[in-house]
Amino acid sequence: MTHRAHNSQKRTRIQERNEKRILDAALKVFSSYGFRGSTIDQIAKMAEMSKPNLLYYFAGKEEIYIAVLERTLDEWLEPLTMLNPDGEPAEEIWSYIERKLNLSRTAPAASRLFANEMLQGAPRIQQILTGELKPLVDEKCAVIQKWIDAGKLNPVDPVHLVYMIWAATQHYADFEAQIDTLSPGPREQRFANASETLKAVFLNGLLPRS
Q1: Residues of the chain with pLDDT under 50
Q2: Does the 3-206 domain belong in CATH 3.30.2110.10?
């Protein structure tokens, strides 16, 4: 049974708090040492829990790893679910880009861990990608296509637009070390500049000229 299935059972607040504590610790450990280099003992120490107590919540290292990736995917899917078919297209798309960029600002370690799993071919979460991510992307791409058909956006391939948004926003998390070197200075100012640039590029490219 996967941890996602286990989580469908009703849990107490203490259980939810302890699971979050474990996943927060695991993210730090996996981000530092990778899946192969990480151990249950390291995660338990980081979470300030005993190993037997940790294993009450998760069966082993792989289950914890998958749960961390599931949580990351859930956080990334939420901004996409908020794309409102009845909203103004430019505002909806820009809000989505802004939310994605903010996730790169606030949760870079999770983004890098997820990117590493993708580079390996997503061996542990392929079922999640096809079962949860794809239907949502298909649904929202259909919304974008309706806006295009109505003449509210320039004709582009919706799914490639989504890929471009992911690439442009997640870059600031996945390649943070490179960006630190190329764009020294206050981190918050860097993200403010990125936001202004992304807004200009995407909206100028998507909005039909009057």
Answers
A1: 1-2, 5
A2: no
